[in-house]
Amino acid sequence: MSNSISKAELFLEQFRQFSDKELKNELDVFNLIEVIFKIDNFQLLEDLAFSSKYCLGLFHILGQNKTDVSEDYKKEITKNFTEVIEQIKSKLNEIILHFSDFERESFKTRYFEMTQNSMNNLFSLITDFSEIKLFLNQRKRNQDQ
Fold it and tell me: Looking at the 3D structure of the chain, how many domains does it have?
């Protein structure tokens, strides 16, 4: 068994022990994390998880219908939300470059097409990586102690 597969399996097992939440896209998350270990770029996982958590925060702000918020503020949040979605897609593209052609095209169809289904899938994947961010934070706190 490949070392990167073992590391990805161990990482997700540790995540499951930490979190009571199930990853909705576990197979795709596994494949992405496996590549991250294969290319030895754990920072990419940390960046993806951070951006995902930030994206969800912006999404929740956008979902609030507060009337005491200026239009400029709403525009700024919308702009930041759009930018972070593009950053996430860019990071995912960096990872899927290492997928086979078939896997890469399949991934792009599921997550990057401009359809409602693909957008829902992408947001679900972002939610998964947001959960992973909480796990990474806990791991870091445990290492610092």
Answer: 1
